[in-house]
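Re: the 444-residue chain
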Amino acid sequence: MISSIYNSFFFKIFIAFIFTYLFYSGYIEFLNFYYEYMGFTIISNRLDDTTFKFLMFAICIIPSFFYKGVKYISSFISIFIYYILYIPVIITFYFSSKESLSNIIYIQFSFLVGMCLFFLADRFPIGKILVLPSNINIMKIILIFTWIGTLYIAFVYRDSLNFVSYEDVYIQRSATEALGRDVFTSYFGAWLANVLIPFSVTYGLFSNKKIYFISGTVASVIIYMSTADKAIFLFPLIIFVIFKFLKNKNLKNSLSSIGIGLNIIMSITLISGFTVFSALFWMRTLGNGGLLTTLYHEFFSTHPNTFFSHINVVNAITQSYPYENKSLGQVVGNTYFSDLTNANANFWATDGIASLGENGIIFSSIILFLILILFNRITAHYNKIFVICVLIPFLSTLLNQSLFSSLLTGGGFWIIFILSFKNMLTNSFINENNNNTGSKTSIY
């Protein structure tokens, strides 16, 4: 009874409306109040335009109509995009964009088309499951590479390893920023964090083999002692919490249950006022995506687009990147914040707006839509909770970096590759038999 209510059409709309209202209020009462100097501005008269406000709320809520449960993994990925990125982007454009109202509506509609596409990927026919034949125990190889990666990072940073408090992370980063800059260490370190650690930790939880969980946790600690990356340090804990939370849950209700959880946190933080947690939650988790997308749009409205030359492979061919040795994050960060700021932004901002302007919003959405379908084909017979836990670091990069960076340094390509092996798919600990929400598509 409760499950049917959670997934009912009107309940989903209600939860999406409450989230939209809370973020709308939080933008005014928290983001604008405490962080106006960073760009969370409110254009005069926007608060009084009832018609525009009603349309903005409608654009925020409409994508929830297309959510039909978690048939494939794309819907779960889309839920995070919807709450953490889409709604903040729509509302931030409403409040702070200097464009005309008609052009803001056009931009918001472009985001709306993309968000609806992401939810529709769940219902796109997946065809044949993509499987690579192999009798190799892939998880043992992952475990060995996790050990090798941990020892390698420890060796590279051997003279600077330090388990610092959260207050001193920037001191540690400054002390070690000259280390590990070579291409091999950069990529290997990223893949250790975004691929090997989540696979090890997650498989350890599902198989009850402690060696995997411990190995992944030790690796995250070594990375934190090396680069003071707080997110990587927390990956094992986050994966453990998500595993325990979702273990006996019906994933069909995910849009409502995740929305309720976020609504509760938003309400508590608005009532409690400014704290370290509320600042991190509102500014870094919820507000950052909307702010940077708006700033990228403002910047590239008057500066040359990259036409995907910000991707190293493309620029190696075209030699057309217009900003010399600065990354997109540095170009935008130096313009709006300081000479030391690298304002990395999400796929809509980088692969969409920076590349092709406003038209790039739908184009980048189509690219992600196709990738979501590929994810569905690869993971259709896996335990969905296993895949969700493995994808946590990838989701983090997807919401904060370009799509191509998420696939490469964020580990998306490697995750697809690893999950394609038949030996992984037939592993009794992680196949769909451990998850009664799995689909029943045949394997070829």
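DSSP finds 21 helices and no strands in the chain.
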